[in-house]
């Protein structure tokens, strides 16, 4: 995802990055639209 090709992974094209962003946006919106979304804050460690 850094835009550099390696032996293990080809570089992402702008279209693939855009497609992933669109998918993640839809995936994130689903719980909000269905009323299941509760909070976006991270949880603190147990000692806090």
Cα(first) to Cα(last) distance is: 34 Å
- Class by SSE composition: mainly alpha
Unreliable segments (pLDDT under 50, ≥5 consecutive)? none
Task: Estimate the strand proportion.
Answer: under 5%
Can you give a write-up of this model?
This protein has 48 residues and is mainly α. The chain has 1 helix and no strands. The protein has one helix at 14-34. The N and C termini lie far apart (34 Å). The relative contact order is 0.09.
SSE blueprint and pairings:
Elements lengths: L13 H21 L14
How would you describe this structure in keywords?
single chain; 48 residues; mainly alpha; 1 helix; 44% helix
Structure summarized in a few sentences:
This protein is mostly helical. It is built from one helix and no strands.
